[in-house]
């Protein structure tokens, strides 16, 4: 499910003249549970109906002033029991939330006001199936306890995670147990007080039985179920926009479960409750039929007709409280236009980049501390492709960007080396030692002087101020535009650094992947090491060794065949026996047969071959060896680097398409079918295409880090 900054909140107060909504049905979860909501019809929006956390900033400030006046008159007693720091922290958190809501509202109203569509029709969203109780008990201190369905479902979520790294994390266990106890009736809540005494093994046995049953299913039955499922969901996969059919990307509502998060997220282990129709807002054309609600006794939260946005449906995430949207697929007309505009904007930056860099270089020499901090931040965003970074609440992961860097994240080493070490987006670690300009190093040392490790480096710089400053330099400029520009520029530069990247397609692909890797490192696109990484490398090395031995045998046989009167010779090859797997074999049986085959020793095979067959076999084996060598090197080099993120979001696809045309590399070897459909607009580009280059040398990943 795509998650986006709440730029397009579908509330009536944010729609203005662009949308129209029916009375909104809001859901209130049952007390102490995560099940079906009770239904209440909300009144027209008014400030009185909002909680203090949801009030606009101006209204919140006004409320605080009224409270202060009341205190002065003696009507309200100030809080004396709460510690001062706690009060300040709570007040700052409320202020942050109100400010975020106000910024969201303003940003929505300032969004592109163009009409995106005239007619829009779709069939709503697909909800996960209702929970079916299995009746397996929980063991507490060795005693069986029959759980009510609501608690049993949550316990099953936890049982599915047994044996994973999540259960090793205290935060995960604590959050789960707190939410689990809320689903228990009062008598069981008094009895079940410690997670350590809970045994979920009976429930896990049930899940293992389900898995075994599924794997033991014959292929014909699995095919039948797949076809039935495809027919069931086909209704939701297509929307009609202005009379044309468009694919829907994410029509499924996320099922309930335990929130996992990234890294050490403070909310990991919390129960994500089930989403109901009352939570969902649908965006439809005014004349489009409203899809029937799939659950009896329920109704859609609201229906809007907002032609200035392109989402089809949305709801609030139960954990993050952010909006989640249903969009059209990446190959849709809307997405194609959006992608093309994004890369065109990055190209426009090339016309301004020299002026912008001169501007922030000049700002480094300013006597004003605010200007100094803004210039250093912009330098880091430009040269290191850092994100801007936003303020975080106590219930959010401690991820940071440029503006939210703290003293603990930076280490300075003479003469001009800066070491950055922090958790970036999705809690992925960013670690880099980079050589910077002498004046940048000097300013950073001044910013750190006299501060505690928990203090902000850029204490006089706000995210909103930096964003406004970027827009003043170029319309629509943001840190993401910088990342897109520098990523695309770097790829274009690296791909043109070598005139002939290799004699064959395998060496050319290896060259491209290495260039893509440099861009991914620049943007800190990392991934965890795959669990099967070592096993995959071992298998590749085994195949490579087998192919090399076979090549030597073929070469020896060629000499014998050339000397033989009948031009034939025997070729010896050692390989594992080929195992035939029956068609109607279950998945579990297939896995068992393959594992047994891998354990068998290699068998000697002797084949009598003619000279022509031997010569052809040598060429084919040499090609296979080159492919295996390139594959082995690529897998080992890219084990912890994600190439797909930069391909999808930051690299102008025309650079790749032009390079493939120049060097006769099939585009499908780099772009899978989904990306080919997403970037169909770029496929007609000339092989001479170059990403615009500024007069100032841009980032060079090979020379940025020490």
TrEMBL record:
Keywords: DNA-binding, Isomerase, Topoisomerase. Transmembrane segments: none annotated. The keyword Isomerase applies. Residues 80-106 are annotated as: Disordered. Its EC number is 5.6.2.1. It catalyses: ATP-independent breakage of single-stranded DNA, followed by passage and rejoining. It is an enzyme of class 5 (isomerase). One of its GO terms (cellular component) is chromosome. One of its GO terms (biological process) is DNA replication. Residues 258-664 form the DNA topoisomerase I eukaryotic-type domain. It holds the Pfam family Topo_C_assoc. Residues 81-100 have a biased composition (Basic residues). Releases the supercoiling and torsional tension of DNA introduced during the DNA replication and transcription by transiently cleaving and rejoining one strand of the DNA duplex. Introduces a single-strand break via transesterification at the specific target site 5'-[CT]CCTTp site in duplex DNA. The scissile phosphodiester is attacked by the catalytic tyrosine of the enzyme, resulting in the formation of a DNA-(3'-phosphotyrosyl)-enzyme intermediate and the expulsion of a 5'-OH DNA strand. The free DNA strand then undergoes passage around the unbroken strand thus removing DNA supercoils. Belongs to the type IB topoisomerase family. This is DNA topoisomerase I.
């Amino acid at each position: 499910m795509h998650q986006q900054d709440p730029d397009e909140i579908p509330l009536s107060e944010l729609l203005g003249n662009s949308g129209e909504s029916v009375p909104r049905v809001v859901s209130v979860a049952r007390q102490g549970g995560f099940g079906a909501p009770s239904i209440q019809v909300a009144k027209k929006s008014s400030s009185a109906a909002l909680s203090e956390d949801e009030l606009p900033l101006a209204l919140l400030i006004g409320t605080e002033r009224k409270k202060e006046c009341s205190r002065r008159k003696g009507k309200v007693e100030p809080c004396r029991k709460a510690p001062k720091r706690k009060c300040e922290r709570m007040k700052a958190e409320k202020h942050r939330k109100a400010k975020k809501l106000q910024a969201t509202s303003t940003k929505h109203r300032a969004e592109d006001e163009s009409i995106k569509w005239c007619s829009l029709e779709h069939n709503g969203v697909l909800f996960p199936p209702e929970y079916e109780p299995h009746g397996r008990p929980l063991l507490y201190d060795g005693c069986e306890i029959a759980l009510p369905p609501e608690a049993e479902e949550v316990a099953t979520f936890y049982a599915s995670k047994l044996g994973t790294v999540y259960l090793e994390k205290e935060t995960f266990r604590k959050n789960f147990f707190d939410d689990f106890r809320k689903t228990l009736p009062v008598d069981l809540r008094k009895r079940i007080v410690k997670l350590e005494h809970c045994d979920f093994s009976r429930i896990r046995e049930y899940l293992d039985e389900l898995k075994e049953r599924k794997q033991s299913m014959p292929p014909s039955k699995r095919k039948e179920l797949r076809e039935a499922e495809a027919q069931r969901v086909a209704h939701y996969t297509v929307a009609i926009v202005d009379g044309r059919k468009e694919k829907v990307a994410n029509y499924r509502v996320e099922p309930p479960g335990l929130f996992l998060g990234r890294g050490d997220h403070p909310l990991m282990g919390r129960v994500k409750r089930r989403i109901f129709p009352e939570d969902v807002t649908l965006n439809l054309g005014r004349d489009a039929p409203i899809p029937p609600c799939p659950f009896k006794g329920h109704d859609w939260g609201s229906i809007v007709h907002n032609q200035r946005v392109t989402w089809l449906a949305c709801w609030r995430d139960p954990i993050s409280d952010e909006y989640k949207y249903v969009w059209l697929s990446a190959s849709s007309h809307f997405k194609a236009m959006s992608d093309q505009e994004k890369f065109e904007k990055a190209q426009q930056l090339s016309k301004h980049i020299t002026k912008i860099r001169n501007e922030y270089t000049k700002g480094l020499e300013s006597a004003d501390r605010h200007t100094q901090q803004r210039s250093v931040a912009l330098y880091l965003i430009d040269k290191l492709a850092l994100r801007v970074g936003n303020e975080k609440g106590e219930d959010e992961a401690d991820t940071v960007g440029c503006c939210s860097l703290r003293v603990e994240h930076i280490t300075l080493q003479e003469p001009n080396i800066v070491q950055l070490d922090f958790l970036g987006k999705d809690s992925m670690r960013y670690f880099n030692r980079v050589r910077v300009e002498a004046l940048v190093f000097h300013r950073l040392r001044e910013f750190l002087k006299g501060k505690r490790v928990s203090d902000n480096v850029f204490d006089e710089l706000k995210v909103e101020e930096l964003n406004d400053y970027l827009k003043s330099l170029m319309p629509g400029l943001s840190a993401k535009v910088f990342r897109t520009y520098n990523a695309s520029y770097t790829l274009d530069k690296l791909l043109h650094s070598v005139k002939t990247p290799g004699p064959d397609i395998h060496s050319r692909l290896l060259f491209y992947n290495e260039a893509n890797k440099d861009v991914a490192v620049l943007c800190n696109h990392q991934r965890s090491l795959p669990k099967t990484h070592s096993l995959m490398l071992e298998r590749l090395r085994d195949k490579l060794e087998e192919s090399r031995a076979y090549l030597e045998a073929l070469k020896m046989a060629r000499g014998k065949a050339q000397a033989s009167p009948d031009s034939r010779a025997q070729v010896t090859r050692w390989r594992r026996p080929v195992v035939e797997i029956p068609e109607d074999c279950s998945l579990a049986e297939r896995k068992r047969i393959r594992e047994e085959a891998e354990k068998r020793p290699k068998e000697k095979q002797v084949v009598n071959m003619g000279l022509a067959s031997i010569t052809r076999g040598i060429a084919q084996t040499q090609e296979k060896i080159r492919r295996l060598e390139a594959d082995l090197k690529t897998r080992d080099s890219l084990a912890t680097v994600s190439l797909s993120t930069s391909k999808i979001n930051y690299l102008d696809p025309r650079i790749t398409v032009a390079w493939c045309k120049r060097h006769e590399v099939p585009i499908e070897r780099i772009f899978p079918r989904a990306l080919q459909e997403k970037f169909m607009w770029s496929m007609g580009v000339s092989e001479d295409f170059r990403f615009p280059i500024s007069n100032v040398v841009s980032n060079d990943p090979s020379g940025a880090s020490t």
